[in-house]
Amino acid sequence: MTLGEKLYTSHEVAEMFGVHVTTVREWVKNGRVTAIRLAGTSRMRFSEAEVRRLAGDFADGTVKSDAWERTGYRPDGGDGA
Fold it and tell me: What is the pLDDT of residues 67-80, one digit of tens each?
């Protein structure tokens, strides 16, 4: 992270990727994305660089929403087959 870099909340990241905030928290728990924890709280922030990295993982299919598995939805318009 660099000084002055934009930080995003878990709600903002969830909205960007079309998932529930609980999914974002699971990604942190599972190590799929790195969060910055605010001292003395359970709140998290995500660096712009980390959000861009996550977007790349979405693009190549490394990360996907559990909801996509249940519904067959894919952000690229495919059917997952």
Answer: 445 445 455 555 54
Domain of residue 49: give its range.
Answer: 7-67
In a domain? residue 80: no
DSSP annotation of 45 reads E
pLDDT digits (tens, 9 = 90+) for 16-52: 888 899 999 999 998 888 999 888 888 999 999 888 8
Q: Which CATH number do you get for residue 38? A: 1.10.1660.10
Distance CA 25, CA 65 (A): 12
Pairing of strands 7-9, 44-47: antiparallel
64: left (phi over 0), alpha (psi -120 to 50) or beta: beta
